[in-house]
Request: fold
Amino acid sequence: MTMKKEYHIIKIAEPFAPLLTEHKRIKFYYGGRAGGKSYAFADSLLIKGRQQKLLIACLREIQESIKDSVYRLLCDRIALYELNDYQIYENKIENKITGSKFIFKGLRDQDVQHIKSLEGVDIAWIEEAQTISKRSWEILEPTIRKNGSEIWISMNREQENDPLWIALAAHPDERTLVKKVNYDDNPFCPEEIKIQAQKCRQRSSEDYAHIWLGEPVRQGNNKLIASDVVRRAFVSTILSSSSPLIIGLDVARFGDDQTVFCFRRGRWCYAFRCYQKLDNVAVANVATNFIKEYHPHRIFMDIGGQGAGVYDILKDRGFSEIIRGIYFGEKAINEERYFNRRAEMWDSVQAWLSSSPQVQLPEDESLFDELTGINKKYDRRGRLQLEEKDEVKKRLGRSPDKADALALTFAEPVYDDGEPQIYHHGQLTYEDIFKSQRERSNELW
Ligand SMILES: Nc1ncnc2c1ncn2[C@@H]1O[C@H](COP(=O)(O)OP(=O)(O)O)[C@@H](O)[C@H]1O
Ligand SMILES: [Mg+2]
Reply:
């Protein structure tokens, strides 16, 4: 008898052997990016599904379309290994010989009826398990009730208290296998990924520990801006600056938000002017007065919301040399590192506050709360992201208008070369801008 060809080809990395060789109620794999979890789970399930008839549920917290699921990965593996006994349908995969079936579901927003369809499941694979809510888990666990059924979990820990971590892995019982796998445990880890990991390590040991070593973001340590650097900036040491004046303008979106102008010259941020309940023309009038009186080199404003109307008026008044419109949500100048423009600008505030010589802010407790009240996280590409505005608002009781205005002053570097120079982004590369920014950092900051 000849050995089946595919068993020569499908290789399961050693840490994942228990997926195939042991029976456990819970198999809990966690770790950083590129540990090989998704691939090993997919390959192992495909192997098991050829050995006997199994109902396999591939689950995640949110699945808006099947594209969000591991369906694609399974299809790719089937194609790669030429597992022709698998038949691929639009929303399920079946094995023609054993009758095994893979189904794909999101847990949030499932009604009881849908969850019931999981009662015959032999193996449930929960992918991206750090996002599973307590409620989803409480509904799911008793539903996977078939004799001998297993729940396979893959996660990259987010917080110390991810619900599934607390429920299963923090104090595992004898029915639970808990295993950590990182990229350096993955024999198939591509070189390019290892390089990325090393780059990240050089940049920040904290980010590296989270993204690549699978450590949770330590509680209280997921703040973007530390309290002490803000306190330090409240100590008055600078009285003037010859750096160009940059104004950040955050226009109120809703009735209770404020319209804020932030004034910054290099290392010296010396004033915030706040207004409530102004219409677009009134905001444009205030801006016009500031332009005439203080001659800013640049005004950066958010044009994602109300700001767009103000921006149009100021352009119409002939200030297009000075005014720049920024969408907080637009892609960052450095897309590799930042989820969007807002995260990039806030990180510049953070770098500015941590730089030396010392920078300065007006002493202001509400500004302190705003700057230190925002949490950071990372998207699946490991890029810095800020927590959603709604969450900040819940905690702060308002939106961080002053801090956003300060962040806007960092939208693009501005140089004092006599007459204003215009740097549209796209015209210069990120490296161009930031190389010269570093060289001239004294002048800028
Ligand atoms: N069995 C395998 N064969 C070939 N390459 C693999 C295998 N397992 C992992 N890899 C490689 O390692 C990378 C990371 O694996 P992945 O399963 O996505 O990790 P994780 O889910 O832990 O983030 C994949 O993109 C792939 O390039
Ligand atoms: Mg994965």
Remarks:
- The first strand starts at residue 26 and ends at 30.
- The chain has a mean pLDDT of 87.
- Residues 11, 33-40, 43, 186, 188-190 surround adenosine-5'-diphosphate (ligand 1) (CB under 6 Å).
